[in-house]
Design brief:
With 138 residues, this protein is α+β, with helices and mostly antiparallel strands. The protein contains 2 helices and 7 strands, in the order E-E-H-E-E-E-E-H-E. The chain has a domain of 84 residues: Alpha-Beta Complex (Aldehyde Oxidoreductase, domain 3).
């Protein structure tokens, strides 16, 4: 099930750009809920399809031996014009939703007793993300 907000104040918004400096927000750099987590190593956008792929991949590995916590939710709409449409005539319709990730942000956390199983799940989840990530543990 793809994630997107139920209601927003405006239908479309500027995509914006990713800043070229590291924000030292300590609350998003440490594990709060789990024993092992996936931390972003560079800037990037993660869309709702990639987020769902990561969730399914991790859930398939850990099953009921652990608990998964996702710390991201796609809030930013990205619009796209249809194929073979000329320039102009306004902004396109919303195509997908993204979350802006910055370095040091913990994307997901797993609370499990088996750290080997958790690392295996996160290693497979790394392949489904479009930017570099690091596996961290307490």
């Amino acid at each position: 099930m793809l994630k997107f907000p139920k209601k927003t104040k405006y239908k479309k918004q500027h995509k914006g750009s990713l800043p070229n400096f590291i924000i030292n927000d300590v609350s998003s750099n440490v594990l709060n809920y789990g024993s092992i987590g996936l931390k972003a190593a560079e800037y990037g956008f993660i869309n709702s399809r990639q987020l769902e792929a990561v969730r399914q991949c991790i859930s398939k590995i850990i099953k009921k031996s652990g608990l998964l916590r996702m710390n991201v939710f796609p809030h930013t709409p990205v619009s796209k014009k249809p194929l073979e449409v000329r320039m102009g005539k306004g902004k396109g319709n919303v195509d997908h939703w993204v979350f802006k990730v910055r370095p040091g942000f913990v994307i997901c956390e797993i609370e499990t007793s088996s750290s080997i199983l958790g690392r295996k799940a996160l290693r497979l989840a790394q392949n489904r993300l479009p930017f570099k990530t690091v596996i961290i543990s307490e």
